[in-house]
């Protein structure tokens, strides 16, 4: 496996400066943001798609530092009921897939998206329970009339360009857990898989180790981000928490740098389990820790994971 970083973390730096920062911390592979929610600070897929000089600059910047690109990321909501948002995110996805082909990258990361509750909606509507029965009517329409047709079409489009899609499971979107990820893959195309981020699973009460086993070879890419569950706040209010992420003291959970939500044993077991299902790709650091600066969180995550990946590569962590 290779230690990676979601490079949008250093969006305030130029691409070359960000790559130097990553390289100096022992990073081997980078995940580049290309549009939609991750933004275009380093790479604007739509703007450079027909600019071979700009594309070559990206290649040279990465390869000259001995790095590789693990994936292009354009996390968005192409199913958004606001057609302007949906089109913008869809266009970014299409451009990213085409850019990935030109760069020789086979993985594009995004979200499944979430429609509204009907064709007349203004905002996305995420269904979290089966009653009253209106919710199941909404869910059936969202999947059968919107998501499955859209992703079937994108699956064929991606196949023509030699690209696979890694959907990141995230509450608020139709794909948020194991069964919804596998459903989209089953119904829309087997080149649709998963960007595995354990942090989103922890706070829903899932066991990421068991999720890895169930997802198997549908895992195309992995994010390294941790979650700390606050036992008292969860006991009082459960895991569904709409308080601002900055309200750390009162939230049921917060995102943390790896190792600050779960200990070495978990992360060793996760890396070893990924190996058992045949995954040998990037472990890409994503920093969203409200208690650490960008540099502190990144440095601590890189140091923590570097040691674990080296041990895993040497066969010292099997069945840890």
Automatic annotation (TrEMBL):
GO MF annotation list: isomerase activity
Recorded superkingdom: Bacteria
Organism: Cohnella xylanilytica
Residue ranges of domain Xylose isomerase-like TIM barrel in the record: 20-305
Signal peptide: none
Keyword Transferase assigned: no
Keyword Glycoprotein: no
Alphabetical UniProt keywords: Isomerase
Coiled coil: none
A Pfam family it matches: AP_endonuc_2
Protein name according to UniProt: Sugar phosphate isomerase/epimerase
């Amino acid at each position: 496996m290779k230690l990676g970083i979601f490079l949008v973390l250093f969006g305030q730096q130029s691409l070359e400066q960000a790559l130097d920062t990553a390289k100096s911390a022992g990073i081997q592979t980078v995940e580049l943001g290309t549009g939609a929610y991750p933004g275009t600070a380093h790479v604007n897929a739509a703007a450079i798609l027909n600019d071979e000089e700009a594309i070559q600059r990206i290649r040279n910047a990465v390869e000259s530092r001995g790095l590789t690109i693990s994936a292009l990321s354009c996390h968005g909501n192409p199913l958004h009921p606001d057609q302007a948002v949906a089109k913008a995110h869809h266009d970014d996805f299409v451009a990213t897939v085409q850019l990935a082909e030109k760069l020789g990258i086979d993985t594009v990361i995004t979200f499944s998206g979430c429609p509204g509750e009907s064709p007349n909606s203004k905002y996305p509507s995420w269904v979290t329970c089966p009653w009253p029965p209106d919710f199941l009517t909404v869910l059936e329409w969202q999947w059968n009339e919107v998501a499955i047709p859209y992703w079937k079409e994108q699956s064929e489009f991606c196949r023509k360009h030699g690209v696979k899609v890694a959907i990141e499971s995230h509450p608020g979107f139709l794909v948020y857990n194991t069964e919804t990820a596998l459903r989209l893959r089953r119904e829309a195309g087997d080149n649709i898989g998963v960007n595995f981020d354990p942090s989103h699973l922890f706070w829903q009460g899932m066991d990421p180790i068991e999720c890895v086993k169930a997802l198997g070879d549908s895992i195309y890419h992995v994010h390294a981000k941790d979650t700390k569950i606050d036992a008292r706040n969860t006991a009082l209010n459960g895991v569904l928490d709409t308080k601002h992420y900055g309200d750390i003291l009162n939230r049921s959970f917060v995102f943390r740098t790896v190792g600050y939500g779960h200990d070495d044993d978990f992360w060793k077991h996760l890396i070893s389990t990924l190996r058992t299902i045949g995954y040998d790709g990037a472990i890409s650091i994503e920093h969203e820790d409200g208690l650490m600066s960008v540099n502190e969180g990144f440095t601590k995550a890189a140091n923590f994971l570097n040691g674990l990946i080296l041990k895993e590569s040497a066969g010292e962590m099997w069945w840890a």
